[in-house]
What we know:
- There is one protein chain.
- The protein is α/β, with parallel strands linked by helices.
- Helices cover 42% and strands 25% of the residues.
- The strands form four sheets. A six-stranded mixed beta sheet has the order 2-1-3-8-7-6, with helices on both faces.
- Helix 3 (46-59) packs across helix 4 and helix 10 (259-269) runs parallel beside helix 15 (390-412).
Amino acid sequence: xxxxxxxxxxxxxxxxxxxxxxxxxxxxxxxxxxxxxxxxxxxxxxxxxxxxxxxxxxxxxxxxxxxxxxxxxxxxxxxxxxxxxxxxxxxxxxxxxxxxxxxxxxxxxxxxxxxxxxxxxxxxxxxxxxxxxxxxxxxxxxxxxxxxxxxxxxxxxxxxxxxxxxxxxxxxxxxxxxxxxxxxxxxxxxxxxxxxxxxxxxxxxxxxxxxxxxxxxxxxxxxxxxxxxxxxxxxxxxxxxxxxxxxxxxxxxxxxxxxxxxxxxxxxxxxxxxxxxxxxxxxxxxxxxxxxxxxxxxxxxxxxxxxxxxxxxxxxxxxxxxxxxxxxxxxxxxxxxxxxxxxxxxxxxxxxxxxxxxxxxxxxxxxxxxxxxxxxxxxxxxxxxxxxxxxxxxxxxxxxxxxxxxxxxxxxx
Length: 413
């Protein structure tokens, strides 16, 4: 089954909102083994939408539409599809009753155009809208299966999970199941990772291997198809072992895990406390770690010491160290980490100093970063070079800090 996702709405073409629906649907379809070969977007115009649908019908088995099911004149998705497939629009009594009751319960006037939302294409299976008014629908005509979904993600996503997935399973070979596993990596670029796995990717069949860059990270989705869950797991384990034999030093977790969450859990489970001294990152590390529930069991506190004077007064960084090495240095990072650990009586101290840019500092270019870590028996630092915007450099510096803490705790277990 080859799918095409068609989003309807001029606001998408104007850049007023992002097409997150297509991203969500593509991911969900990949999990059940449905190929998505095309994404299309059409504005609220019958002629242009008709042209998009005609093209999609000729190249895709499954057409999934989002948007254009509302009560206004520019909501014309189902009208256009009905005309192209030579079908009538009929009122769904259950949907009409639901819409009518909604207005009664909210003590609002129901204008005549709201009845339009209860219209469905004849012969369709109705997909209930548990979070809104306009129902979705699904029908098959010739070689095409069409699914119409509302545009608001809060309505579309639960409808897709609760009703579309079961509908698609009813159309598929239920003997074959698809099992996916996501491997997550940090500290390696997508192109480098793909190069290391190039031969595996080129000969992939079952399981498939799909690299994907995400926010400062890289993920690999492994997908195996088999009627036996045990056999599918064996296939995934086999490929995962080969992948990690080449890239294991950058691997940190699976599926929905994040580097930050996993590191926090490691610190908490090992009953380790931490404190931070931040210059370059301006409190970003503290913000992220205190976002987690129960942060007080791990995070003792932190300080933002942006100026050299404050580094001297609050963290007792010696003037001689600043004169000899500068504040953007491994020596300063190590002093900051050790001092914040002492002052807060923490198990671990971490510090961030560097140049976020765009200008140079102490003769060092933007992206020069030093991360200090102090434990009960040693103090050391990591020097890294980053590129990108000021915001990106700060975010990635913090992510590197979490990575070093992650490795530290795992090695100590």
